[in-house]
Amino acid sequence: MTDSPRDTPDGDAAVVAASLDDPERFAELFDRHAPAIHRYVARRLGRDAADDVTAETFLTAFRIRDRFDPDRAGVRPWLHGIAARHISGHRRAEVKALKILARTGTSPVAESWTDSADDRIAAQSAARPLAKALARLSAGDRHVLLLFAWADFSYQEIAQALDIPVGTVRSRLNRARRKLRAATDPHNPALEARIPEGEPA
Fold first, then answer.
1. C-alpha closest to that of 89 among 122, 57, 116, 125
2. 8 A C-beta contact, residue 26 and residue 20
3. Which of 11, 16, 60, 71 has most Cβ atoms within 10 angstroms of its Cβ?
4. Burial class for 66, CB neighbours closer than 10 Å (0-12, 13-18, 19+)
5. Distances from the Cα of 197 to the Cαs of 61, 74, 201, in angstroms?
6. Which among 60, 68, 50, 81 is positioned nearest to 144, based on CA atoms?
7. What helix, strand, coil percent values describe the chain, rounded to 5?
8. What residues contact 121, with CB distance under 8 A and at least 6 apart?
9. Residue 37 main-chain phi, psi, to 5 deg
10. Contact (CB, 8 A) for 39 and 56
11. CB-based contacts of 10, cutoff 8 Å, min separation 6
12. Whose CA is closest to 61, among 84, 45, 93?
């Protein structure tokens, strides 16, 4: 996956740099990226927690913006990496919600996975085994899998977001897919071998 024109040294990265002298410029990044961060966190933790985690993510990003390295990561992976650390702070809540979904078939978190009632009904049969399998993944494996499946990140972007080598991304993703495949429908889209653009097969 390639960076968008705004997520380049002439775009988002330039806004981060400009915000060091003009802090109000940082609001541009919030306006541009907060909806995607909120959607991603809502799928992980539910809409209520997503409000808090999104706010925490941008407050943290603002505080550490002087440490942003445009040569190492784009703004989007940087922000999702910060969000992932805040999500980890809610790890128990995430695992508890997944276990409730696995046991009962209903969860306010899972309701945010799909937008329409028809989609929710269609997804309900797959949701219980998927939730059970997701709950059993390590936090690291779950972060990698869901950044890949829900944030549509490339291996390189996941590596940048989580500050881990690309090889670790590959091994975690393969391990997570194997575990989910064993517990769920092997044709689940999250398990399909989508190779991001620019990645070797």
1. 57
2. no
3. 16
4. exposed
5. 27, 16, 10
6. 81
7. 70, 0, 30
8. none
9. -60, -45
10. no
11. none
12. 84
Q: How far apart are the first and last CA of the chain?
A: 14
Give the C-alpha distances (Å, rounded to integers) separating 140 from 85, 136, 193: 10, 11, 19
Q: Which residues of 68-86 are buried (b: 16+ CB within 10 A; e: fewer)?
A: bebeebbbbbbbbbbbbbb
Instruction: Tell me which residue has tokens 């399998």.
Output: 133
User: H helices of 113-189, where?
Assistant: 117-136, 139-149, 155-162, 166-183
Structure tokens at 82: 């910060």
* pLDDT tens-digit series, residues 100-133: 766 665 554 545 544 444 444 444 555 677 778 8
The CA distance from 158 to 179, in Å, is 20
Chain centre distance of CA 85 = 11
CB 158, CB 144: distance < 8 Å: yes
* DSSP code for 113: T
A 10 A CB-CB count for 163 gives 13
Mean pLDDT, to the nearest integer, of 52-68? 96
Amino acid in position 134: L
Residues 174-198: pLDDT tens digits?
A: 999 998 888 775 555 555 544 444 4
Question: Higher pLDDT residue, 195 or 149?
Answer: 149
Q: Which residue has the tokens 């703004």?
A: 75
Angle (nearest 5°) at CA 146 between 195 and 186: 65
